[in-house]
User: Fold this.
Amino acid sequence: MRVRVEGDSMRPVLAPGDWLLVRRNVAVRPGDLVVARLPDDPERLIVKRAQWHGVDGWWLESDNQRASGRRDSWDFGPVRDIVGRVVLRYWPLLRRRS
Assistant:
């Protein structure tokens, strides 16, 4: 599946407007970028970094903890509903440095 990044919570690795290729139903390891369902709004997908797996699910964190509006496991706890692992950022091909 493909996913478009919104927001600044994963900067500098991912920026708003980046497009990602996500592989569903694959093993996740600590450090992987994953797409998950937001626990309190399952229709909404989030892109986060998998930190560790516990009995209640994956602890997911934003790379940019200072991002405005950032939400991750510090806000909603462990997440069970991992949709897939990010395998590639395919657009933009090159990113301008700011």
Summary: The chain has a mean pLDDT of 95.
